[in-house]
Design goal:
By secondary structure, the protein is α+β, with helices and mostly antiparallel strands. It is built from nine helices and 14 strands.
């Protein structure tokens, strides 16, 4: 069984899972993995550097939320991934070093929350610093990369830095979504819709504003409809957590979606998280209400 072919099969399988679940995949899906030539190939185990039995070298690397290793992005935009333990010659570290030598692509799994991992592929080990006990890891933008392009991709310095910076931005954005949806128990704060694939994390203060930090008190879990309405000042939430529908929308006659999806929510309170430190900031909601009132006809 070819190690390279298993990697290509893993990437194709991940494409299918991301199309179904989104970029953040549950542990259960990753641990179950896929079947290749009659053999189950998981993508994770308890080891951060993971080699399934069918591979000769590691297939994935993983960063756990709140885990023991201080994996981080360096000033040049590339990921600094910690060794397994403190022995540079531990078999898992040796395996990653060999993957670097052979320019083999891997899967990077970034833990946003316990049991939920953002899948990034292909990534390459492009540096090794035994003194700092770290590998340097770079992403590549082409998920459909063929085996023949692996070596060239691992050596394209400018391109790999750009791609890794994009990955860091996606992880930042997705992390906000995961934290907010987790706080709201995967439910729209306005209509209680519980289909995660139809939910967004809406910023109360825009992320382009200096106050718009990606923290739960600056977020609302909203379905696609109510997120769009919130962003366009059709609907707002006042500092007492009451839903306010714009006056002209309340007077409009259009059909059941408008009536049940928006108008009937007017004056009702949102379903806020029970934890005090996760509740929407009343100050942020007051600022948002000012913009809503200023933009109302």
């Amino acid at each position: 069984m070819s190690d390279q072919q298993v990697r290509l099969a893993a990437f194709a399988w991940l494409d299918q899972q991301v199309a179904r679940h989104g970029d953040v995949l549950p542990w259960s899906v990753l641990h179950q993995g896929f079947t290749y030539e009659g053999v189950r190939v998981p993508l994770v185990s308890q080891q951060g550097i993971f080699k399934p039995k069918v591979c000769t070298l590691p297939l994935s690397i993983r960063t756990s939320p709140g885990g023991p290793y201080a994996d981080s992005f360096a000033a040049d935009g590339l990921l600094q991934y910690q060794y397994r333990g403190t022995d540079p010659n531990h078999r898992e570290n040796v395996g990653l070093r060999e993957a670097m030598r052979l320019s083999l692509p891997l899967v990077f799994l970034y833990g946003h929350m316990p049991g939920r991992y953002h899948a990034v592929w292909p990534v390459f080990v492009v540096g090794d610093d035994p003194g700092a006990l770290t590998f340097t890891v770079a992403a590549h933008h082409d998920r459909q990369m063929t085996e023949g392009a692996w070596t060239a991709a691992s050596t394209q310095v400018a391109e790999r830095r750009y791609a890794t910076v994009e990955v860091r931005q996606r992880l930042h954005q997705q992390g906000f979504r995961e934290r907010v949806l987790g706080a709201y128990k995967d439910s729209c704060a306005m209509c209680r819709l519980k289909h995660r694939e139809l939910l967004d994390a809406a910023h109360i203060i825009a992320d382009t504003d200096p106050l718009g930090e990606p923290v739960v008190p600056n977020g609302l879990a909203l379905c696609k409809l109510h997120h769009a309405a919130f962003d366009r000042h059709i609907v707002a939430v006042d500092p007492d957590y009451r839903i306010i529908i714009r006056a002209d929308i309340l007077e409009e006659v259009d059909g059941p979606m408008l009536k049940h999806g928006l108008q009937e929510l007017h004056g009702h309170r949102i379903q806020a998280p029970k934890r005090a430190d996760w509740k929407p900031s009343r100050d942020f909601l007051a600022m948002r209400m000012e913009a809503f009132l200023a933009g109302s006809p």
